[in-house]
Amino acid sequence: MIRTLLKSMRQYKKSSWLTVICSIMEVVMEIIIPMMMSNLIDYGITDGKMPMVWKYGIAILIFALLELFFGTLSAHFGAEAAAGFSANLRSDMYKNVQTFSFSNIDKFSTASIITRLTTDVTNVQNAYQMLIRMAIRGPVMILFCFIVCLSISVKISMIFLIIIPLLGFCLVLIILKVRPIFTRVFRTYDNMNNIVEENVRGIRAVKTFNQEEGQISRFKNISQKVYEYYCKGEKIIALNSPLMQFCMYVCTLLIAWIGAKMIVASGNNPALGLTAGNLTELLTYSIQILMSLMILSMVFAMITIASSSMERIAELLQEKTDITNPEHPVMSVEDGSITFDHVNFRYQTASNDLTQKKRKNVLSDINLQIDSGQTVGIIGATGSAKTSLVQLIPRLYDVTSGTLQVGGRNVKDYDLQTLRDSVAMVLQKNELFSGTINENLRWGDPSATDEEIKTACHQACADEFIEQFPDGYETRIEQGGSNVSGGQKQRLCIARALLKKPKILILDDSTSAVDTKTDALIQKSFREDLPETTKIIIAQRISSVQNADQIIVLDDGHVNAVGTHDELVKNNTIYREIYESQTRKGGSSDGKEQ
Amino acid sequence: MEKNNKIQGQTMKRLIGYMTKQKKELVLVVVCIIVSALATAASSMFIQTLIDNYIMPLLGTANPDYSGLLHMLAVLAVIFAFGILGTLIYNRRSVVIAQRTMKDIRNDMFSHMQNLPIRYFDQNEHGDIMSLYTNDADTLRQMIAQSVPQLISSLFTMIAVFACMLYLSLWLTLFTIVVIVLILLVVKRISASAGRYFTEQQTSLGSLDGYVEEMVNGQKVIKVFNHEKQAVDGFEERNEAWRQSSSKANGKSNAMMPIMNVMGYGLYVVIAVIGGYMAINGLTNYGLISGRGILTLGTIASFLTLTRSFINPLSQISAQLNSMITALAGADRIFRFMDEQTETDEGYVTLVNCRIDEDGKITECAERTGQWAWKHPHHDGTLTYTKLSGAITMNHVDFGYVPDKTVLHDITLYANPGQKIAFVGATGAGKTTITNLINRFYDISDGKIRYDNININKIKKADLRRSLGMVLQEVNLFTDTVMENIRFGNPQASDEDCIRAAKLANADSFIRMLPDGYNTVLKNGGASLSQGQRQLLSIARAAVSDPPVMILDEATSSIDTRTEALVQSGLDNLMAGRTVFVIAHRLSTVQNSDVIMVLDHGRIIERGSHESLIAEKGMYYQLYTGAFELE
User: What is the ipTM of this complex?
Assistant: First the structure.
């Protein structure tokens, strides 16, 4: 896991190392300065020599400036390394996501990909900065301080040998105890946010059924749990500082007692043994050592919290796309003919979802022959795998067995980009992106002229409403297309797909929010303006498909029947049922009008 | 800047208001902090006393008597013990205060949110509302749990240390103050410039997060359009902008610590030189209590330690300044959210259970009778009861989401009890808007809506909504069991009621197929169910609430027509004997309605039964036959 993450370090290795080096230098200065301070007291003030005070004073200032120099550098490089590292991590993840196939995306779910790219990266950034600036300096500080203490008095240094392991042991104990509690805290926290999200989204349902009070008590319940778990965990962490203070005070008292005896024994003569200055020095170092241990324990606690974020990032980085380009790809698509030959398909089992539904074949033994330029309708109940069927054509998913040919060749032989350029698909859950209408449409063809855009919009019956907007084609679309109606959005998405001038055009229930009349107009323009293009139309309304050259009736992943409208009305029960349900009561008047 | 400070001041005040709800705890914590700070100060003072009074006198004596020293150490040990106890208590109690404060804020936020009008949710991005609970509450929690106790403790330590300094030497304290004021000026400058970069970092992070969210949500579209390269370019640009600002902001704030340290050393040296000069030249020292005397060497040594004890908490506070500013900005957003105007309700007519005797006389009763009445108190103190029957009238109603943009014009309609009224028309014609006026998600601009001949403005909103059932196109299921999701329609419903409702909606058979039947827990808004199944649950939910008036807003449009046929009988059961408003773009769904209203650009342009509208050969006729006419 760590190795996967470290691969993203790249150009920031240098600044990471510089941070470590500068931090060590900073620590060295932080150690030297108290030595100077004690000298200043011993040789300057105690002896009453002003020149000595000046001498050590200036020395302190010089070392202080050096500390400032290294400290600022370490601050700068540390921030640069951490920001750069996380920028690289984010970029690597994002680029990997771009290579993902649909099944990779399904596996992770959109929401979890977003969390990994945002919150998780921020956690790692903070932990990494802390790590290179603090975690390295801690042990160095402890080591140096201990050596200095040894040089002053071996006897007194022994105190640390007892206290440090004791403190370290207690800190580890605290971390171990707290870890499972915090895992639970975060899980409960997620659940709480989930409740908020459900309520924000479902506020109409809540208000309709007067459930405000019920939801508030539901929220308060989980809010109380979050409170309890947090308190439990943080109360244990709160033991850190009294524990630390206890060790510090014990050290102080012991050092004072033993130190005093030694000073008296030496007569406060540096040549003979411990002096008063040494004593202050020892006390300062003892505080430094314990402080470093304390910071170290905080760093570990932080890394513990960040480690789950690190794991999630590594997962995303290690995920390999399961649809790749062939070695010698075919770079052009001959025509828009499509052949399904004994195609079976099932979704790969996502690790977190083991329901029966996913393991079963979604499509079974599909055999179809679609000629170039044909219009094909697909009809079937919700869950009959209509969408799954068409998503195989541009290789958004790979068939599990059997072969699928486009333009007379297996789809797996094509260059992916070539294939997807020739197959335009309007997805059921379609997205517009923030930007102008023009920018959105140019996704289909970046070099499209204004004339071409207008034509495509006309074909999709979108030109009329676009021109009614004050800014016309320059109208800004908000994120998710929230400022256009459902029907307008669908028509824009169709226009965008038309601009690709595809050999095969697939509409996955893409006119459901468009009124019948406009729908019919769109169908008409397809017939007249795109005779060469194979058009595959998934629809719920019979009227959207009844003029198709062939209509495929899907039932639970099987092809139930293929035929024209008239044939199916006559021979196919499912189709007739759907047809009748849509023309019920009005059926007779339909007949009359025809 | 001035204005910023004011806002931060107000936010801080409100935050403190939340914390002071727990007065006893807070007093205990403050007392413990003082005890702990005093012990820390004592340990600083300790060196002087130790060296001056207990070590120096022993020098040169043949048989040093350590009992004095031992006594002193014992006294210190007791003080230290109190200090540790103080630290222990205040650390643990302040966790509780912090978490309880957060819990209060959270609960207030959520309760407030439940009472906000629908308008608020329409006008604000859901992501923005969520981020109040996640990002803003998180930074605030960190501040309350970590920064605030540290701030208080640092403040007391500084006060205690300052008192000790005054006690030791007036002159040296004066020098210290001058230097510290200089230090503070430097801190202010650095934190101001770091603050700018932090704002920049937050902005660029917001733009980066927004981009990532949009792109990842549209990832499948990106694939279909081979748009990966452009998506990466746009990302890289924002990622780089974020990297630069984040690097600068953190660099500046990281540098705060070494800068403070160095200035601390500077102060140390200045005091050493001045003190040394005074001591060596025998200048008179003034201590606050100790009074006039000679500056001893021990005093200087102690004073020097004190200056460090004074600088340390100062640098700790300044290192946290930026995160505190970020947290306060979050708190400000949270409080502004809580200041949003809630839904007002001046209604006084309530819905009560009742008994109706043969003469039609209505008497109120407490238990459920299946019969309801509107209880209408009048100005003169009398009460009248009106039977709940479900008649709705709209009289010349105008409405606009924003004041000067009317979207509904002069809507007049009468729905008699038990009638089925349908609205048809293009997207954006105002069909849904009309139903949102009946249940008062929005209030009308002009005209009158009456329910059983009572102006709906006089009816309490909760009671009005209880009398209306809604099935919406978008089904919102909650993370809970299927049973609880059905019971959502009526919390008083028994399990049997829920199952009966599910049977009525034809949902019972598929629910029994689920792994745990009615006890199956739904997650992710019921993502494991098909659209049709979710719709059936939503119908069951409306059935269990058993209202006299139903609103079906595109309730079946995401179900394929074959499934719809199955649902239809359930819906027919549900609609029997009720006043029903139906919105559908699928005309087959509405043609058996008593009255069909054709809406266009917010006006009713045609009304009548299916047959009469077809005969009229107007807009409805065109819509109905549109596909054929084009041939």
Answer: 0.81
